[in-house]
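Box S1 | Example of a co-folding query
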Amino acid sequence: MSLTDAQRPANRRERYSSMVDAASRPFAAGAVVVPLILPVLGYVSGDARVMFTVHLFLGAFWFGTAVLGAVVLGPVMGSLSEEANAEFAAGFVPRMNLLMEPVSVGVVGSGIGLASMMGLWASPTPSLWAALALAAALLALGFGPLHTFTSGMFDEIAADDTDHERLASLNKKYGMLSLVELALMVAILGTMAGLRWGF
Ligand code: HEM
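Box S1 (continued) | Returned holo structure for protoporphyrin IX containing FE
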């Protein structure tokens, strides 16, 4: 859709309403509901194998998206012209903004729930504590600075007088922090391997 007539959102409510419009209503609903409902279904199933599958699915999705974003899409976006970058970001940013925070909560929630269904909290191993600490850092990064940068990017894209300099600078900061996110994700996968082998 074209956002050329839109104004820069004045507040959070306005921003989310235009973000939902830009991403499309069905996408926005699915992006929030699916990653949050799956861990709940896994937990109420009472079967650790179901929860394990949910956790793997959401975890693989988050990890894959993080690699793709940091290694491929970020550098490609950075090398586009101002107009092409704004156009690409207009489709990409609202969808990612709506999708990735629920996915991150779904992965961490399903991991904590899985550990409880497997009885691991009775005597947590160092890997389990490390996973919890890394998850807290990942969530703080995602809901904190990464959220602030992508919201700012969306505001610039939605405005009819896009400040391309601010957009590029936010894009750059986002790109650098997404490498930190990727490093934390690689570390948490190390702890997942540790859990598997009982460390
Ligand atoms: C970015 C976040 C995460 C990703 C990508 C992820 C990914 C994975 C993967 C690929 C496995 C399968 C390998 C294995 O069996 O060990 C797994 C298993 C598991 N994860 Fe996670 N995970 C994440 C976060 C968490 C968190 C925060 C917790 C709990 C605090 C957790 C708890 C578990 C448990 C208990 C298992 C099963 C271990 C076992 O098979 O013995 N995960 N996770």
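The radius of gyration is 18 Å. The pocket of protoporphyrin IX containing FE is lined by residues 55-56, 59, 62-63, 107-108, 111-112, 114-115, 118, 120, 128, 131-132, 135, 185, 188-189, 192, 195-196 (CB under 6 Å).
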